[in-house]
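Researcher: Re-running this chain for the archive, since the previous output was lost when a drive failed. Same request as before.
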Amino acid sequence: MSHPPLTQFAHAPILVLITTLLMMQPLSTDLYLASLPSLSRVFEVPVATVQLTLSLFVIGFGSAQLIVGPLSDRYGRRPVLLAGLATYVTASLLCGLSISMDMLITARFVQALGCCTAVMIARAIVRDAYAPEHSARVIARASTWLSMAPIIGPMLGSILQVNFGWRAAFAILSMFSAALLVICAVRLPETNEHKNPQATNLRGLIDNYRLVMGSHDFWSHVLPSALSYGGIFLFISGSSFALINVLGVPTQWFGVCFALAVSGYMTGTLICRRLLMSITGPKALRLGTACALAGGSFFLIATLIGLWHWSMVVLSMFITMASHGIIFPVTQAGAVAPFPKQAGTAAGLMGAMMMACAFVVGSLVGATHNGTLYPLAIISCCIGSLNFITVRLMSRNPTLADSGA
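Model: Regenerated structure tokens:
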């Protein structure tokens, strides 16, 4: 199996662009989290309706990857990425100009289509530019920098909400994505050296999906990745209501609380980078899911015994985010590594699974919101427990135990 030498892409800051593209997903949600409670008041709609701006975003994000992946396998990463970024810029402007909740929800769905293109292409570029044995460390390195987005995003979002209102977040996203579009148009080379003309044909699609979905290695990495993302999406979608409405944290301080929690993700990626220097990916994955179980269990136990304080929620989030920082680099690299000619398809399927799990979790958060911490704590513990069990059941198959990340 051949891989393009890294020097081939030396004229473009590949790692910087990969990191920036991956940042679009957390920024698209975290930058306006502090505005969610106010959106319910401004548009006079219930919390469950406001949650649709997140839930339908992940549906659009996940479903589009099933199309974007094969398109990038056939036509290349660059043209598909540029089209996606242009879509994102337009949708962000429409979000900021929305005059109704229906318009905002629709614009958010379209925004998700562009956002998923950027993230999915970034994942595929990692597979194009780096050999499989280096991919997990590359992703962990990018993820360390990526973690700055969910740290800075909520703090900036809180400032924007307090001083300018909810529309300001989408103005910032519009300017950020427009600048990124220009940079990619000027600096990003085509990295797909294995264009597949059959990738978008019905038979080619079926063959590629059958190949990817028939792989035990794929599912061994995608299932824990999806559950892990569902665990952090629980906090992404529910933390503003829990901290601001339930625990009385001022809006201007929400971003600081969220940033403290999300620093757990950066910590997790740093731990992952160190772990992968001495142990295999599957062993790191076991440690990551044990951390996820610890975070969910702590949240539920603390809630049941009455420790209702913002610091408890932040600590629970920190542990869960740290677990994702360990799990995600390993699973992202491991799910795509076996498929050099179907990297886009594999990355798209992985993203779809993650977003489907996030949609289910987001819907549960909206449907079970009752002004207490109990629903969030119960769901968090269930997700952590399920992920812990899933990895250990899947690892009984020797394929996972013998595979690297």
